[in-house]
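User: For my dataset I need records formatted as: sequence, then structure tokens, nothing else. Please produce one.
Assistant:
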Amino acid sequence: MQNRLFIFLFLLVFVQAGFAEPADSERPLSIYIVRTGEQLQAPHVSTYRMVEFAQLRGRWIVPDVGYYDGGHLNDRQWFVGAGAELYHGERATLSQEIYLTQEEGSAAHNQRTMWLWPVLDLRFTPRLTSETVAYPTLPLDRSAQWGFAVDRAKLEYAFRPHFQAGAGYSSCKSAGSSWVNKPFLTTTMANRTGSWEFWLQRMPGGAQIQLRYLRAHRGY
């Protein structure tokens, strides 16, 4: 009960902060994200599952809420965040969000953490682009540990308007552990249903395939 109350109170604060700004002339851009991964080697188990909902209101990102687990319901993580687009130019876009997270489940340690989540998009040419997300994890209680992760640093080329491919790198490190390197190849296809991104990623002891789906539209 305390965990859910913690999430609700911070969500309320972020939503109020977003609505304190003057209303944008357009309806908010609603963004739906679903991600999952599966181990390629036997026994082909799920490596993670994630769902997320966010809204872009002018330059403000609020609310942003989601759920994550490592393929098992005994260690779940809820997160809530808000942020803003800090810069938007012809060649680059930079946004920054702050997330608060809460673990729960029989195998969890009830950790509470904060993510400082920047997203940098670069447009070298109309067809050659990159996206980088690298963030620290800050502990908010005694059970949590600091960490740093590269969620993605990828370079992609658009062979057609709705098809692009490329390569990237992700990694993570937490207190008391060494770097875990996870390079990947990526292919993205877009159609009326949304953007479908597939990763073939090397993992410690094997490999995994990821599906990253995103749909965005104006309105609620």
